[in-house]
């Protein structure tokens, strides 16, 4: 509740109002502003200031917001059916043109002295997984998951480096900034993204898109399935291992 409120901007008395409301949202629905003030041990003026900091016109609108939040929490959402999109994905990866794209990616891995998998959030976890899988296959790879990593690229020529960038949207600002810095220092970029025509895709030397229906829940939390990304990371690592051990 009140996901966008900046708690640091609230005074101690306003925090008392906030804490009372989130602890007793149903009871607040039936209270007047004076009754809420008494219950939270603050003045009605404090409640009015609290409403203003939430960009609300007053106590009446505050009660509407609380009611809507309660209704949203009780709403039943339809299940997220993965069968159809995943079936379509695995049908697509069996086609020759997709297989060629994987082979192009594999050649970039072989040409690189170092492979960096870049991602944040869920994509960061997958970057760690992919780096470990490539290590298992015999490649030199590591994950970069800190979006605030200092830029030391200017002291290096990264032309023998491959950066595999994982991003569902392909438009995350911190990821684009880091990818651009690698690109400026001559690293090759492979984008693994859900959006073929994203800013990240335009930046990359090679883009592999997986086209899953995006799902966001709660406070805009991305729950888009990452099964295709795991498949792609394991496929490239296994093909790398096959080629290494055959040679």
From TrEMBL:
Stretches assigned to the HTH rpiR-type domain: 1-73
Residues covered by the SIS domain: 105-246
GO molecular function: carbohydrate derivative binding; DNA binding; DNA-binding transcription factor activity
InterPro entries: Homeodomain-like_sf, HTH_RpiR, RpiR-like, RpiR-like_SIS, SIS_dom, SIS_dom_sf, WH-like_DNA-bd_sf
Stretch forming the signal peptide: none
Entry annotated with the keyword Lipid metabolism: no
Keyword annotations of the record: DNA-binding, Transcription, Transcription regulation
Matching Pfam families: HTH_6 (PF01418), SIS (PF01380)
Gene Ontology biological-process entries: carbohydrate derivative metabolic process
PANTHER family reported in the protein's UniProt record: GLUCOKINASE (PTHR30514), HTH-TYPE TRANSCRIPTIONAL REGULATOR HEXR-RELATED (PTHR30514:SF1)
Protein name from the UniProt record: Helix-turn-helix domain, rpiR family protein
Organism for this UniProt entry: Lapidilactobacillus concavus DSM 17758
